[in-house]
Amino acid sequence: MADKKKLALAKHDKDTGSAAVQIEILTARILGLEGHFKNAPKDKASHRGLITMVNKRKKLLAYLAKTDKATYEETLKKLNLRK
Q: Which of 16, 14, 20 is nearest to 67 (CA)?
């Protein structure tokens, strides 16, 4: 998963706790579910998990925008997310 490849927003090698890195990991997981839902459109349990991940990412983005505006802007730019 994410620990095998270099994370673009990590401050150091073992950084998995910062808000920017958590957003990056959640984004990768969310994008990974796109293919799954093409093959299994009736998978409601995974859909519920997707909604949970999207909401968590939204909360982390709001926190990052409130605490560190520069990192927030950089995160949006690198992950190609909308405001």
A: 20
pTM of the predicted structure, to 2 decimals? 0.85
pLDDT in tens, 21-78: 999 999 999 999 988 999 999 999 999 999 999 999 999 999 999 999 999 999 999 9
List of residues 6+ apart from 3 with CB closer than 8 A: 16
- C-alpha distances in angstroms, 21 versus 5, 18, 47, 66, 77? 12, 5, 23, 16, 14
3-state class of 70 per DSSP? helix
Q: Which residue is associated with the tokens 């520069």? A: 70
Chain-centre distance for alpha carbon 57: 6
Q: Please identify which residue in the block is written with the tokens 């910062």.
A: 18
Residue reference for tokens 């990974």 = 32
